[in-house]
């Protein structure tokens, strides 16, 4: 349950918090909110001061039916921000949220310490080889299709069983390239109906068979606000409830918009042990 980030061994036996930094104009919750570098630095400073262990930076919205962004534009959005963050916060541990090998490479070369890939290497056949060469931890998520098509690909005979098979195949492939540090993400909201999201959460402890750290990315998603008949902006309380359940089901990283509340969830759940 340890991962190597820039030579630092991070122990995931105690759950950690990954703060979300979207530098996209169209993310479902905070799209366009952090465009200027001063605003970005302020937001990152806030997340770090509240206890974020990692900051996950993304420049391509993966919400359902998200618009296409070119590889060049994605790199352009990311690199100058990564440089600024590394200079401003020398001990920061950055993750890049991308499914493109060239974007991952450019990001790591400028200071990123981890790659978070929604496609587990299926949308870019160079990704696994690139991550292995970069020698950084790799987060692989379960998804079908791509952000433009995933919500039409939700038929499963046994969703958790099929997800475990998917991960076992992707882990084997990643290991064959030499990737040593792997984290798995069930991909809440990706090629899953609302009911399927809750089935996966309910059975999430079954992923322990894979013997890898588990990341839960539930923050402010539609599986919360649609049930509560609210907006993403009103879904913080629901996020805390489901993050608490995810921790009890074995999550080792909470990927969130709201760091303080996630840190509190971890502190309180730890008392149960």
UniProtKB/TrEMBL annotation:
Its EC number is 2.5.1.15. The keyword Metal-binding applies. Keywords: Folate biosynthesis, Magnesium, Metal-binding, Transferase. Pathway: Cofactor biosynthesis; tetrahydrofolate biosynthesis; 7,8-dihydrofolate from 2-amino-4-hydroxy-6-hydroxymethyl-7,8-dihydropteridine diphosphate and 4-aminobenzoate: step 1/2. GO terms for molecular function: dihydropteroate synthase activity. Residues 15-267 form the Pterin-binding domain. Catalyzes the condensation of para-aminobenzoate (pABA) with 6-hydroxymethyl-7,8-dihydropterin diphosphate (DHPt-PP) to form 7,8-dihydropteroate (H2Pte), the immediate precursor of folate derivatives. This is Dihydropteroate synthase. It comes from Flavobacterium helocola.
